[in-house]
Write a structure and sequence with these properties.
Blueprint lengths: L17 E5 L2 E4 L4 E4 L2 H4 L8 H11 L12 H13 L4 E5 L2 H18 L7 E5 L8 H7 L2 H4 L9 E4 L4 H7 L4 E6 L2 E2 L5 E2 L2 H14 L2 E5 L23 E4 L10 E5 L20 H14 L4 H22 L4 E7 L2 E6 L3 H10 L2 E2 L1 E3 L3 E4 L7 H23 L1
Parallel strand pairs: 3-15, 5-6, 5-7, 7-10, 10-11
Antiparallel strand pairs: 1-2, 2-3, 4-12, 8-9, 11-12, 13-14, 14-17, 16-17
Bound molecules: pyridoxal-5'-phosphate.
The site of pyridoxal-5'-phosphate has 15 residues, from helix 4.
Pfam families: Aminotran_3
Pathway: Amino-acid biosynthesis; L-arginine biosynthesis; N(2)-acetyl-L-ornithine from L-glutamate: step 4/4
Keywords: Amino-acid biosynthesis, Aminotransferase, Arginine biosynthesis, Cytoplasm, Pyridoxal phosphate, Transferase
């Protein structure tokens, strides 16, 4: 029965009801099959109902669901070990969402300076167009007025500078600066990759001024861009990194990763979470990594991404009145539209292709990482049909 009346009206939902998923497909109540290149906003990294994830969740469900962090949780130890072995990090804290992973990252950075005798160093430099979540601290970090307005005083200690402006970053550094926080590829902001050189320059600035580099890889991480984490393309490492979305494959799971040095202030009692690192989440997170860390999986992502990217570039040439630009990295792609992005989203949805709108009039294409080249071509064919119809409607 349809009855949305009891729900907060915070979301603008599409009138679609899905009851089942299979790989890159979502099946609606009425039996219609949609090609899911939204993937729950880059969350369903292995598609829907992946047999390995289903088995891991079922197996854990029959043992124990929840323990809290009053006891040792073996799944946290194994997932933590695998994450630290695969990355720059030495330490991991598990959360249930991206915003919580960012909260942990922010607290870790501030606490680092506090522990080093500099409690006044708590300011964090962030960038125009950023998105870091919807908690009181992370809306301040993102700095977007539309998310901050009406929720009381903006949490102090976040300073926003223009995207890609190194001079502005330098000018913003003071005695109070603790860290720089950036998404290697802006997601909600409109699939804006940060130039490699800029990432390298930020790393240098942090080293020079004794600041911590915090990366928000909630959307860009866990294979999405064709590397395990997007910062690897720039050949740098952060001090702290927030991860979520794809790591859980659809189960609510996030993580804050840090070096030993950066995490040194986070001693017993300084942070916690009731659910964070719960056995169900750990079983699924470990199962996601079983697949993502398999030999050849990242190659597969890069190969399919190339097919998809080239196809999108061809569509851009064919439909210059619809598509202004194609951008992104790996399977984190965006079409910058010439028409209102809401119209493009509707048009592709009419072809039973799901995508996600973003800032800067961009349509995000975030297929499951398991997508095949053939499925990518099917997606392209649907975008092509949508563009044809939009072009015809424009001419009429
Ligand atoms: C989605 C997202 C978040 C917030 O994650 P939630 O799980 O919604 O709290 C933070 N940062 C980035 C880059 C994201 O894409």
């Amino acid at each position: 029965m349809a009855d949305a009346a009891p729900l907060y009206e915070t979301y603008m939902r599409a009138p679609l009801r899905f009851t089942r998923g299979e790989g890159v497909w979502l099946i609606a109540e009425n039996g219609e099959r949609y090609l899911d290149f939204a993937a729950g906003v880059a969350v369903n990294s292995l598609g829907h109902a992946h047999p390995h994830l289903v088995a891991a969740l079922k197996d854990q469900a029959e043992k124990v669901w929840h323990l809290s962090n009053l006891y040792e949780v073996p799944g946290q130890e194994s997932l933590g070990r695998r994450l630290t072995e695969a990355t720059f990090a030495d330490k991991v804290f598990f959360t249930n969402s991206g915003a919580e992973a960012l909260e942990c990252a922010i607290k870790t950075a501030r606490r680092y300076h506090f522990a080093n005798g500099h409690p006044g160093k708590f300011h964090i430099i962030t960038f125009d167009g950023a998105f870091h979540g919807r908690t009181i601290a992370t809306i301040a970090a993102g700095g977007q007025e539309k998310y901050i307005e009406g929720f009381g005083p903006k949490a102090p200690g976040f300073l926003k500078v223009p995207f890609g402006d190194l001079t502005a970053v330098k000018d913003a550094i003071t005695e109070e600066t603790a860290a720089i926080l950036i998404e290697p590829v802006q997601g909600e902001g409109g699939i804006r990759p940060v130039p490699k050189e800029f990432m390298q320059e930020l790393r240098q600035l942090c080293d020079e001024y004794g600041l911590l580099l915090i990366l928000d890889e909630v959307q860009s991480g866990v294979g999405r861009t064709g590397r395990l984490f997007a910062h690897e393309w720039a050949g740098i490492t952060p001090d702290i990194m927030a991860v979520a979305k794809g790591i859980g494959g659809g189960f609510p799971l996030g993580a804050c990763l840090a070096t030993n040095e950066a995490a040194a202030g986070m001693v017993a009692g300084t942070h916690g979470s009731t659910y964070g690192g719960n056995p169900l989440a750990m079983a699924v997170g470990n199962a996601v990594l079983d697949v993502v860390l398999e030999d050849g999986f990242l190659d597969h992502i890069r190969d399919v991404a190339l097919v998809f990217r080239q196809g999108l570039a061809a569509l851009k040439d064919r439909f210059p009145e619809i598509i202004e630009d194609v951008r992104g990295e790996g399977l984190m792609l965006g079409i910058k539209a010439k028409i209102p992005v809401a119209d493009l989203l509707k048009a592709v949805r009419a072809e039973q292709l799901l995508a996600v709108p973003a800032g800067d009039n961009v349509l995000r294409l975030l297929p499951p990482l398991t997508v095949t080249a053939q499925e990518a071509r099917e997606g392209l064919a649907r975008i092509e049909r949508a563009a044809e119809k939009l072009t015809a409607a424009k001419a009429a």
